[in-house]
């Protein structure tokens, strides 16, 4: 069994404790974990033991980082995993996210609902664009559809509102109309619904 004689233990940045052998840093653990395990200078420790501690330290730090990030904004499970993998190994990142999902700190359904509310109220997107945006955040289709089902969406009314408030000045000629149709398609509305709304808008204007 390979062992390492630790001749110095001292604090490092980021709430870490460094273990040194022959003047060189061997590894750094979460300081609370190092204290719990009673690590002491002048002691020999098996390499496998130190590797296990390093894995546990990575997991603790990944959880702590995730909770810190969640104080500022919500994350989907996929986005949080990607973010944590910038600082931690893949297993620690995924295990930390799984734990946070278990305790409800991360909830993809809640995240999807909040995102849909924003996309409807602030962006005025249609269902198709909303589904694309949710997919880009790692929300699976079933979760996205379930979250969408909790909203009363009238896409025809939404298109009409956009025509009145955002695109009314672009409807004076064919070029402006084509530009408006293209824009509304990017918003996630179907062509047939857009042209129907345009006909209704023109009829209302003529009256």
Summed up, what is this model?
The chain is of the alpha+beta class.
Detailed description of the structure:
With 207 residues, this protein is of the alpha+beta class. The protein folds into 3 domains: 100 residues, Winged helix-like DNA-binding domain superfamily/Winged helix DNA-binding domain (Arc Repressor Mutant, subunit A, Orthogonal Bundle), CATH 1.10.10.10; 41 residues, Arc Repressor Mutant, subunit A, CATH 1.10.10; 52 residues. It has 10 helices and 5 strands. The strands form 2 sheets. The protein has a 3-stranded antiparallel beta sheet. It has a two-stranded antiparallel sheet with strand order 1-5. α2 crosses α4, α3 packs antiparallel against α4 and α5 packs across α7. The longest helix has 24 residues. The chain is rod-shaped.
Order of helices and strands, N to C? Answer: EEEEHEHHHHHHHHH
Largest sheet: 3 strands, antiparallel
In total, how many beta strands?
A: 5
Assembly classification:
single chain
Side-by-side strand order of the widest sheet? 2-3-4
| Strand percent estimate | 5-15%
Number of helical segments with 4 or more residues:
10
CATH architecture call of the largest domain: Orthogonal Bundle
What is the averaged pLDDT score?
91
Give the termini distance in whole angstroms.
Answer: 91 Å
Q: Could you say what the CATH topology of the largest domain is called? A: Arc Repressor Mutant, subunit A
Shape: rod-shaped
CATH superfamily of the largest domain: Winged helix-like DNA-binding domain superfamily/Winged helix DNA-binding domain
Helix content, binned percent: 55-70%
Structural class: alpha+beta
Radius of gyration: 27 Å
CATH hierarchy class name of the largest domain: Mainly Alpha
Give start-end ranges of low-pLDDT stretches.
Answer: none
């Amino acid at each position: 069994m390979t062992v390492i004689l630790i001749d110095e233990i001292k604090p490092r940045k980021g709430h870490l404790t460094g273990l040194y052998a022959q003047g060189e840093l061997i590894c750094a653990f979460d300081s609370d974990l190092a204290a719990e395990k009673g690590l002491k200078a002048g002691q020999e420790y098996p390499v496998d033991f130190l590797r296990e501690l390093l894995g546990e330290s990575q997991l603790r730090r990944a959880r702590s980082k995730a909770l810190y990030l969640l104080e500022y904004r919500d994350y989907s499970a996929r986005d949080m995993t990607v973010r944590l993998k910038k600082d931690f190994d893949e297993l620690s990142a995924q295990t930390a996210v799984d734990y946070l999902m278990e305790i409800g700190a991360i909830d993809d359904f809640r995240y999807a609902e909040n995102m849909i509310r924003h996309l409807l109220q602030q962006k005025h997107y249609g269902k198709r664009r909303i589904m694309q945006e949710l997919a880009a955040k790692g929300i699976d289709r079933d979760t996205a559809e379930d979250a969408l089902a909790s909203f009363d969406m009238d896409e025809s009314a939404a298109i009409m509102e956009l025509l009145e408030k955002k695109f009314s000045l672009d409807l004076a000629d064919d070029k402006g109309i084509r530009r408006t149709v293209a824009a509304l398609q990017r918003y996630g509305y179907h062509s047939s619904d857009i042209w129907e709304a345009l006909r209704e808008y023109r009829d209302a204007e003529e009256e």
